[in-house]
């Protein structure tokens, strides 16, 4: 029999004994075993080490898996070990939003290192500031007012008319609630393959309806404002059913993969909170016509105020979010709305829509109500995920106006050039007319000099 076979059998039986003999017999106990700390604050943790070998340990260090989330500076010299154990305290400092683990690393006299199986889970959340509560409640109030205005401005007769020829609005709703959710889901998986929280931020932004910004930009770019308002109204109403549908179907894939609980109750509450102001607007339209006229007049200003408030206030109060900005965040912020504009325009032209209608459809498809997505993320997700994921809609809100503003400048330049050409043509025509008029008013002698009579 081959002697190698005996060596293999010996190794097979001896390996478990060898590993058991050399396995780390010490353990670490953190008290508490989980801690939640606000950014830039410290928390004191108790550490108990037992089963250590006196004289064999050179150094003990407490380390953190992700030093951008939390910091620990604790090194214990081996000489402090007494009777094979050590007990004491150390401080952990919260650096930035996120989650990480702390563990103990022991360096032996021969420079061999061992790490503890026990870990301390650390969660870093945003500090509780008054300005954050003001921002959240103000957005909620502005969104409620906006939906009251939508209810008051909703033209039921016009809706019935559009049903007879719903091509344009149907394209807009399809782009808003089919193209954008699928696009946001795909981009999220592509750009953030290892971050389910960021995928949710992307997806929640994609399933949000178009806001009043689409109406404002459509009017500024000389699109069909009536179709824009109608599509916004339809998408707002459809959002009550389609947003939960997407969250509980395609969104559930992200929740399940990220080990996050689907917030059924909170999403339902959110939908009800949007239905109530819309119903209030319908009641105002029915019983208070004078108030309705006022609400319709302030619809665009309120929409513009909501846009400016969310973008400016969110940037000012959440400057820390820019620390999360990476090339993926920039691409996400540009990709979702810009591809939405392009796909919306292509769909509209495929179905032979006029340019003003196609422009309204493209703008309606690409613009998302980031205020709703921010509010939904913070309302449904636990911390710090609720804050971390808002970087995506904030990025989308910043990047969305760029191509629209560029188009506005192009249209203005083109308009100015056309106006200049028209002025030149008008000046030339005026000059020609003045020459003709001057010739008609010349005395007969001067006319004869300029145009002598023909000789017989």
Automatic annotation (TrEMBL):
Topology class, membrane: Multi-pass membrane protein
Family membership noted in the UniProt record: Belongs to the bile acid:sodium symporter (BASS) (TC 2.A.28) family.
Assigned keywords, A-Z: Membrane, Signal, Symport, Transmembrane, Transmembrane helix, Transport
Organism of derivation: Phlebotomus papatasi
Stretches for region Disordered: 430-456
One Pfam family matching this protein: SBF
Main location: membrane
Single annotated GO MF: symporter activity
InterPro entries: BilAc:Na_symport/Acr3, Bilac:Na_transpt, Na+/solute_symporter_sf
One GO CC term, this protein: membrane
Gene3D superfamilies, A to Z: 1.20.1530.20
Name under which the protein is recorded: Uncharacterized protein
